[in-house]
Amino acid sequence: MTVLDVIQRSAEFLGRKGVDSPRLQTELLLAHVLREPRLKLYLNFGRQLSQPDLEAVRELVRRRANHEPLQHILGAASFCGLEIQVNRHVLVPRPETELLAQRAWEYLRGLELPHPTVLDFGTGSGCIAIGLAIHCPLAQVQALDISPRALDAARDNAARNGVAGRIQFQVSDGFAALPPGSAFDLIVANPPYIPSAEIAALAPEVRDYDPPTALDGGADGLDFFRRLAAEAARHLGAGGRLMVEFGDGQAGRIGEIFVQHKWIVENVEADYSGRPRIMTVRPDRV
Ligand SMILES: C[S@@+](CC[C@H](N)C(=O)[O-])C[C@H]1O[C@@H](n2cnc3c(N)ncnc32)[C@H](O)[C@@H]1O
Questions:
Q1: CB-based contacts of 16: which residues, under 8 Å, 6+ apart?
Q2: Percent residues over pLDDT 70 in the chain
Q3: Does residue 147 have its Cβ closer than 6 Å to ligand 1?
Q4: DSSP for the chain, written as a single string
Q5: Contact 184, 44 (CB under 8 A)
Q6: What pLDDT score was predicted for residue 285?
Q7: What angle do CA 163, 169, 172 make, to 5 degrees?
Q8: Is the pLDDT of residue 286 over 90?
Q9: How confident is the model at residue 4 (pLDDT cuts 50, 70, 90)?
Q10: What CA–CA distance (Å, rounded) separates 246 from 38?
Q11: In angstroms, rounded to a whole number, what is the distance separating the alpha carbons of residues 210 and 28?
Q12: 141-180 exposure pattern, b = at least 16 Cβ within 10 A, e = fewer
């Protein structure tokens, strides 16, 4: 069977199984099996696949047809140009979180402090903390998560990206394990924010593969924002900021929560599709 035959048949199969962008997904799986860039497939569509390669790609297409996420099958996701390994213990990094990480490193660089301090709250795969360590070489980066297994993955990702010595990882339920008095110039958080009752209706790629602790934000999805609004200010130094990612349609209620807890909403930013997804707040300390 040729490269083109495999692409056409597999894409048609994935499409029938309800997988989004079936042709692109097929090409990425095939490129992975052949260990070459996807665009190289286009240079020789008529090339015959060996039997072992054909069997390998069939197996991956079968897994994708069962809605296993592409990143789990490939073992890695791309985040801000970095390769981040993923498994069932960590959320697959999302494109809107790249925007959060980028705003965070721009903010840290703008501080012009010799060693700005930053906490990544709920680090998961470590993607945000690693992005910050790489883009702010002088920053002191701390990262916490309630899941020890997520932290194992985050440490591994930090090592693979050459910043293992730059990030302090800590198991913690919220801020509980931080030493009293620890204060940061910036806290970044992409907390769980899906309302509990909506999880069952999510795409199988998310519902069945992302860890529930990374998704479930309580009855209205806003539990972690109430917790951050109540507790984060005492972990910020003078002039410190908190930057959070949240779900589509949550901006208004989250703004109210922060204002009720005496924060000033400084900025709300939309994602690439124009939906508000990132908020920067600072304590109203007068
Ligand atoms: C939405 S995921 C974000 C992961 C990663 N920061 C990212 O942006 O891809 C939320 C993370 O918060 C962690 N988490 C959930 N409850 C927590 C808690 N009580 N304290 C600390 N971390 C928690 C989860 O384990 C998960 O890794």
A1: none
A2: 100
A3: yes
A4: -BHHHHHHHHHHHHHHTT-SSHHHHHHHHHHHHHTS-GGGGGG-TTPBPPHHHHHHHHHHHHHHHTT--HHHHHTEEEETTEEEE--TTSPPP-HHHHHHHHHHHHHHHHT--SS-EEEEES-TTSHHHHHHHHH-TT-EEEEEES-HHHHHHHHHHHHHTT-GGGEEEEE-STTTTSPTT--EEEEEE----B-GGGGGGS-HHHHTTS-HHHHB--TTS-HHHHHHHHHGGGGEEEEEEEEEE--TT-HHHHHHHHHHTTEEEEEEEE-TTS-EEEEEEEE---
A5: no
A6: 78
A7: 160
A8: no
A9: very high
A10: 33
A11: 21
A12: bbbbbebeebbebbbbbbebbebeebbebeebebbeebee
Tell me the HSE value of 27 on the side-chain side, using a 13 A CA sphere: 13
Give the C-alpha separation, 255 to 265, whole Å: 7
The pTM for the full model equals: 0.96
Is 221 touching ligand 1 by the criterion CB < 6 Å? no
Question: 223: CA distance to ligand 1 center in Å?
Answer: 13
Cα of 22 from ligand 1 centre, angstroms: 30
> Distance of alpha carbon 279 from its chain centroid, rounded?
16
Ligand 1 atom with minimal separation from the 173 CA: 20
Tokens of 141: 């980066």
Q: Comparing C-alpha atoms, which of 14, 8, 5 is closest to residue 62?
A: 14
CA 174 to ligand 1: nearest atom: 20
Other beta carbons within 10 Å of 24: 13
In the prediction, which pLDDT does 180 show?
82
Locate tokens 């190289």: which residue?
40
Please state whether beta strands 276-283 and 263-270 pair in parallel, antiparallel, or not at all (unpaired).
antiparallel
pLDDT higher than threshold 90 for residue 181: no
